[in-house]
Design a protein that fits this description.
Blueprint: H1 8-14, E1 34-37, H2 58-61, H3 76-81, H4 83-88, E2 93-96, E3 100-102, E4 105-106, E5 113-114, E6 121-127, H5 134-146, E7 150-155, E8 165-166, H6 207-210, E9 222-223, H7 255-258, H8 272-289, E10 293-296, H9 304-320, E11 327-330, H10 340-347, E12 353-354, H11 357-368, H12 374-381, H13 389-393, E13 397-398, H14 408-415, H15 421-437, E14 441-445, H16 471-474, H17 495-509, H18 512-515, E15 517-522, E16 529-535, E17 542-548, E18 554-559, E19 566-571, E20 583-588, E21 593-599
Parallel strand pairs: 1-2, 1-14, 2-7, 7-10, 10-11, 11-12, 13-14
Antiparallel strand pairs: 3-6, 4-5, 8-9, 15-16, 16-17, 17-21, 18-20, 19-21
Helix pairs in contact: 1-17, 8-9, 11-12, 11-15, 14-15, 15-17
Length: about 600
């Protein structure tokens, strides 16, 4: 494993002063290193809230720490007491999975699971009691701010918990019913009775038009079970007319926007009532808690008009609250290293940033699938597609794996069956060097710094950091450690934690790695060298970054700025001098990397003055 040393004295001398804690509002989104955590799986500081104040078995309380699909007990107080651990990684922002009150348990008989993940919301105004209280969340935000860290909330505007049911036969599974076959003007299909006279379809989001949509039974016949008539907060969410009610999405075509997300009640986001209601809900969280940004779930499943109303409203609310750099980034799930698909959401929908699925795919291709390093060069070439171009790309949240697709280590193991643990650790380590030094705002998925691997995506990638009782987690060997998830895993001496802490210090000391323009220098159609230069936004000073994606040492030339003369090693081992003006020879071990400060003042004995 190639964990190469930093020039630590230089870095420590250049670290920002403690006064940074008072200036966190001034940092732009491009300057943040983000730690993403699901509260239920991080730390259980208050066992009294494990059942969320509910009584009964797990189907009532949602609590079963032996099952990967139920609440395990992690809470907001646990996050508060681990803030120093998180900050020690170099994280400057905390992205907290949804903390809103959820329907504790849902799903058909025998297939139930719990809302531990936070995406089955019933009350958009209250913290889920399994996690704590609104006061606890305010304490978390205040404690993070006191340490100079921002807090990003994970929010949902696409759907709520599954409360609305359909009167039609459930054995069909409620397949999606399209607008052409089931128009708003007929009940239950083209041959049905006329309803909603004068409604001019969902393309007209005016209040006058939506006042004419009074009957929601155009596709299916929605009904609310007895006892759940007021299950959702605010109360306007309980009226089925504010939902699409067209059955389950196939995640393709029209259904991706209008269908129920695996049975979850799909909000009619074209409606002005829904738009105004969601704006009011989330503006209140900004005003009351002073959060610093939103990660928005399922962004691609909502109409662009909603976002063009919602995003400016949130930015204006934040500005009035004294939050000038409020960050909003959407989840646009996509496979593949091409960024054109996700970039459209920054242009048409008005998103300032989107999660960089293209970056994730490109790094996986280079380190898991043995592609050439040209996959990285081509992906970065696509930065011009974002609204705002390459400058906007600096704020795109980059990541390696997540709670849905799974952890990067698992993905590489899937790509390379039979890979040895040492090689897997080397590849994962190099991926994290890329994450922390290439353009974008890096997102560290909780547990990756402790060598978590996981068996798959979704529930299999949501292990506990505190001692777990889930057998399918505890049988999983961790990278770089002899521990398992049956033990607490907050070891600051873990090699991946130490690596990330080093890289976090390097970012803090090197503005070019945070907000600097990036220019690709070297790549090929085979595994091996990938190099870029990044430039200090204030001085223009160049930093050369080089990676070796192959399993063999390389001796390779990279272009460099023509005025470059000498190099100073900031991370890894850099050559002392350039080989000739505009070219530098790099020696990198297998899966090695180097970060080099470029110096342009030649000494008298330089062979190439």
């Amino acid at each position: 494993m190639k964990f190469l040393s930093l020039a630590l004295p230089v870095l420590l001398a250049a670290l920002p002063p403690p006064a940074q804690a008072q200036a966190f509002r001034e940092r732009t989104p491009a300057g943040e290193t983000v730690y993403f955590v699901l509260p239920d799986r991080f730390d259980d500081a208050d066992p009294k809230n494990d059942k969320g104040g509910l009584k009964g078995d797990r189907l009532k309380t949602g609590y079963d720490p032996t099952s990967k699909g139920f609440y395990h007990g992690g809470d907001i107080k646990g996050l508060i007491r681990r803030l120093d651990y998180i900050k020690g990684l170099g994280a400057t922002a905390l992205w907290v999975g949804p903390i809103f009150k959820n329907k504790p348990v849902q799903g058909p008989k025998g297939q139930e699971s719990a809302g531990y993940h936070g995406y089955w919301i019933t009350d958009f105004t209250q913290v889920d009691p399994h996690f704590g209280t609104n006061a606890d969340f305010k304490a978390l935000v205040d404690a993070a701010h006191a340490k100079g860290m921002k807090v990003y909330m994970d929010i949902i505007a696409n759907h709520t918990a599954d409360v609305i049911q359909y009167r039609e036969d459930a054995s069909t599974g409620y397949p999606y019913r399209a607008r052409a076959d089931y128009p708003y003007s007929r009940a239950g299909g083209l041959g049905g009775k006329a309803i909603n006279p004068g409604f001019a379809s969902d393309e007209d989001s005016s209040a006058a038009n939506f006042a004419k949509l009074t009957d929601p039974a155009f596709a299916y016949t929605p009904t609310v079970p007895k006892g759940e008539e007021h299950a959702k907060v605010p109360d306007w969410l309980n009226d089925p007319v504010h939902y699409h009610n067209r059955g389950n999405t196939t995640f393709y075509g029209e259904s991706a926007r209008f269908g129920d997300f695996v049975g979850l009640d799909d909000l009619f986001t074209e409606s002005p009532v829904v738009r105004d209601g969601m704006i009011a809900i989330y503006a209140k969280w900004i005003e009351d808690f002073g959060v610093d940004g939103f990660r928005i779930d399922t962004a691609r499943h909502v109409d662009p008009g909603f976002w063009r109303a919602f995003i400016p409203a949130m930015q204006e609310t934040a500005r009035k609250r004294g939050i000038p750099n409020f960050h909003i980034f959407g989840e646009v799930a996509h496979e593949g290293p091409d960024n054109g698909y996700i970039a459209q959401y920054t242009r048409r929908d008005g998103y300032p940033a989107v999660l960089d699925f293209a970056f994730q795919s490109a790094v996986r291709a280079a380190l898991g699938q043995s592609t050439g390093t040209d996959v990285l060069a081509e992906m970065f070439d696509g930065d011009v597609l974002y609204e705002g171009g390459e400058r906007a790309a600096l704020a795109m949240p980059t990541f390696l794996g997540n709670h849905d697709m799974g952890r990067f280590a698992m993905l590489v193991r899937k790509d390379r069956p039979g890979i040895a643990d040492k090689e897997l650790l080397d590849r994962v380590a190099l991926a994290h060097v890329m994450l922390m030094t290439l353009r974008g705002s890096p997102v560290i998925y909780y547990g990756d710094e402790q060598g978590f691997v996981g068996h798959g995506g979704d529930q299999d990638a949501r292990e506990d950091m505190f001692p777990s009782r889930v057998a399918s987690y505890n049988d999983n060997a961790l990278l770089g450690s002899t521990r398992t998830t049956a033990q607490a895993n907050f070891a600051t001496g873990h090699p991946l934690y130490k690596l990330l802490a080093q890289l976090g210090a390097l970012r803090a000391a090197t503005p070019a790695l945070v907000r600097g323009q990036q220019v690709t220098r070297g790549y090929s159609d085979k595994p091996g060298l990938f190099s870029v230069s990044r430039f200090d936004p204030a001085t223009g000073g160049e930093v050369l970054i080089a990676f070796n994606t192959s399993d063999q040492p390389i001796h390779a030339a990279s272009t460099i700025g023509a005025s470059a003369d000498r190099l100073e090693s900031l991370f890894g081992s850099c050559p002392a001098r350039v080989a000739a003006p505009g070219s530098v020879m790099l020696d990198l071990p297998a899966f090695g990397s180097a970060v080099c400060r470029v110096l342009s003042d030649p000494s008298p004995d330089h062979p190439n003055p």
